[in-house]
Amino acid sequence: MSKRKKLLLSSIMCSLILGVSACPVSAETIETFNLDEMVVESSRNHKTPLPGGFNNDSSRVGLLGETEVIKAPFTVQSITEDTVSKMAMPNQDLDTVLSNVPAIRTGTSPIKTDFSIRGVYTNASSYYVNNIPGFFVMATGPVTNTVGSIDAMIGPAATLNGSTQSFQTPKNAGSTPGAIYLNTKRAGENDFIKYTQTFAGHGDYGEYLDVSQRFGKDRNIGVRIYGQYDDGGLAISGAGQRKKNLFANISYEGETTKTNVFGGYYDQKLLGAERRFSLDGSVTKIPDAPDASKSFDDPDAMHQDTNGYMLTLNHQKKLGEHINWFVNSGINQSVVRRFIYKSEFTIDVNGNVMNKSAYPWSDYIHIQNQYLQTGLKGDFMTGVAKHNVVVSVDRSHRKYYQDGKQRKDLGTTGNIYTGLIFKPGIYDADESDKLKKKLNHEETDVTLNIMDKIELGKLTLVGAVARRHGNYIGQTAQIKDDNWAPTYGVSYAPTDALSIYAAQSVAKNRGSFVESDGGNALNANEYLDSVKLKNTEFGIKAKPNENLSLSLAYFDMTQPNQLKTYDTTDPTKYWLSNNGKNHFKGVDFSVDAKLADKWNTFGGFEWLNAKQEKTTKAKFDGLPTHGSAKWSGVWGLEYKPDEDTSFTSRLSYTGTGKYVINQTAKVLDIPSHVTLDLFASHKASINGVPVKFIAACYNVANDSHWIAQAGQNNKFMLNNPRSCMLSAEFEF
Q1: Are 61 and 160 in contact (CB under 8 A)?
Q2: Which of 219, 300, 462, 529 is the most exposed place for a label (fewest CB within 10 A)?
Q3: CA-based nearest residue to 137, from 344, 472, 395, 366
Q4: At residue 29, what are phi and psi to the nearest 5 degrees?
Q5: What are the tens digits of pLDDT across the range 471-529?
Q6: What pTM value is reported for the model?
Q7: Rounded distance between C-alpha atoms, residue 624 and residue 119, angstroms
């Protein structure tokens, strides 16, 4: 075992010993202990839902901890555990519930985890598991049945998290304007043993076990164990999946100590399910979408196998009346072996697959992550101002291994409407199980975080700064960055039901090394400065009454990109810089409401103006950013005839997307689309055994359409066909 691993595991063990050695106290003492804005949430300190019950009235805001949504000077949304269980059924991915957030657009191939926030591309690297970043990348995502509630931080608040890997977004695009906190399921007040069966109409069958128990004199030790076995076909013709996992969450709550440990192992296999497309440069219009139920690879040959483990620790110890010490740490490992297409299908206007794409690729990815954060959090008074201060330091380390082998002699041909043609050799070309670990890059980031939230009557001020030291070792260069990232926020709340706020942050990421490009790059072998995403937001939040909650935000972001400045004497020579610019501005609106005694609603919309403002030779200046759409929105309506039954519909709308052809700078329109999803749940009793039934149907109309991929050059996706599921949860 390496010294780094020993140090990290030693930290975890020391914190565990501190946690379990604390003296137990009565339940009354625990209830009077102030948990507001703690770094580690109590598993028994449940959040209060907003009107309608789909979202919570408080959310995690990075190191500031749990904060009331209406008082946070940022856009935040906390999705309840009940909403997650209803809309992100355990055999589905989390994008089925993330689409509830108006600022987020989802929709990608099942072999990817891509989504966008306010028009800026990101992927599962934006997910945090119990405050720990870095567990996932573009090819690996969260384990759905481990997730309880979800906290989405949008905009300037995304800089309040500590170190983030530069793998989070394309290396030259700056930091992502969002962070998604996944809070794992923890033991609640009531003990139970639950067994769940799920069935999908395409032969997918799942079994789940969920056990929650509390121990100790004051029941201050909670244990929750859950596991999944799921196997069967997807709605895509011939495609299938197999998921196996086992996880445990152990929590301890004492008078001065709180500790939570989560860990487990997962193994999942995906067969087929390719949905990525691109257009030939000669195309002058977007071709019609093919039948979404079709498979566009061979499920008998193409696959993605992922297995790994993860372990997180959250620990807090009260050192005094006004000061707490905390630790957040974690390790994980993921191994991906897959046989997929190297890139997107390139098609012409008639749907013919071009010879320059669809080559099978044996791929091997091995990821190792380690994270450790420790610090102090306290409060004190200066006159009439109350300061809530956090000082922490964290270290994030990743080793990323990758190797692949492409077979250009086995390119798939044919037509996406009439059928594809696979060469016979494709069935013996998979070498993913033979590939070995080959270091792609290693990255270590150390960040000092200092922040202060000042409460001054009706005024709240937030100031934070992160000092990042990054060290990226790639295959051809070592890139170091050393920079400051500031965040400012102010909120004025004339009443408890209204707040007006403004915030700004400058999030920085590593720079890049200039390759020679055959001698054409005049500043070859130089290092470009760290890139930054400047993010400004103004907003208003209101709760006019107990049945209505509203939020409106205006945002303005500038994102860098690489720019080539050509030599005036030799047009083949250029200087490379990060001086290009994309500009995103728009409006987010969200609403949660109880319309009547049995009717609830949630939803919102986003208007986005995304432009390329500074590009090489001004070729794309003034054009939309890749995959952007002016309008998008979501609206959900729930009818609850009684406390045990609910029926929910959700409409998701994405306006006309923009596809920019690189060769000609021509902009093509990807048609808008509306998707209807339906959900139902009912609690009953069978022979004295409580049973909860949940039914879900995604894409009810079985519509086939293209999905624009925000921030991704020359890419779009085919949506998934109608998929219906039913689950029965038995509680013993």
Answers
A1: yes
A2: 300
A3: 366
A4: -65, -40
A5: 989 888 888 888 888 999 999 999 999 999 999 998 877 878 898 999 999 999 898 88
A6: 0.91
A7: 11
